[in-house]
Amino acid sequence: MNVDNNGWTSYSDTTFTDGIHNIQYRAYDNAGNYTETPAQEMKVDTVAPALNVATTGATGQNGWYVSTVTLTSSASDSGSGLVVLEASIDGAPFTNYQSPITLLDGIHSVQFRATDNAGNINQTAPQQIKVDTVTPSLSLATNGTLGLSGW
Fold first, then answer.
1. Judging by DSSP bridges, how do beta strands 95-96 and 101-103 pair with one another?
2. What is the pLDDT of residues 97-136, one digit of tens each?
3. 105 and 69 in contact (C-beta within 8 Å)?
4. pLDDT at 12 over 90
5. Using CA atoms, how far apart are residues 135 and 120, in angstroms rounded to an integer?
6. Is the separation of the CB atoms in 113 and 124 below 8 Å?
């Protein structure tokens, strides 16, 4: 066998590392005749894409945001290459990610998923994002007898 054009060696089980490899086999009979296969390309990618998510907004108390929230995501894959970056908002099916995602008032569930050309997937766990941009209303009631000059 000839792996990555490194010369012919006796056949042995071979484990390939990530990347693109060329492999070729040759067989001999007892008379010394041989046949060989054409070179075959073998692509190996065992690593899922890198996935990054950033959340921006004004934080309030108890895990709430008090402004609209903007989500941005990016992904990369140094092996077979990135084929798709997707997002799921509030349990909807995954769709192509459109940058950025803005969340308004409410409690939202957000997930991102990146897939490479080899089919490796990196997916975030569902993240709960709570947004409340409305300040509470307040009313004041006074009780008593109004005197002179605002007293």
1. unpaired
2. 988 999 999 999 999 999 999 999 999 999 999 999 999 9
3. no
4. no
5. 44
6. yes
Question: What would the two tokens of residue 44 be?
Answer: 């190996």
| 33, 62, 124 from 57: Cα distances, Å | 73, 14, 20
Q: Categorise residue 57: left if φ over 0, alpha if ψ from -120 to 50, beta otherwise.
A: left
**What is the C-alpha to C-alpha distance for residues 79 and 117, in angstroms, rounded to an integer?**
9
Rounded Cα gap, residues 139 and 146, in angstroms: 19
DSSP label of 151: -
With the C-alpha atoms ordered 37, 38, 39, 42, is the resulting torsion angle positive or negative?
Answer: negative
Helix, strand, coil shares of the chain, percent, nearest 5, are 0, 45, 50
Residue-wise pLDDT tens digits, 32-61: 999 999 999 999 999 999 999 999 999 999
Domains of the chain (ranges; CATH) run: 2-44 (no CATH), 50-131 (2.60.40)
- Residue 46: strand, helix, or coil: coil
pLDDT at 21: 95
Asked whether the predicted pLDDT for residue 147 surpasses 90, the reply is: no
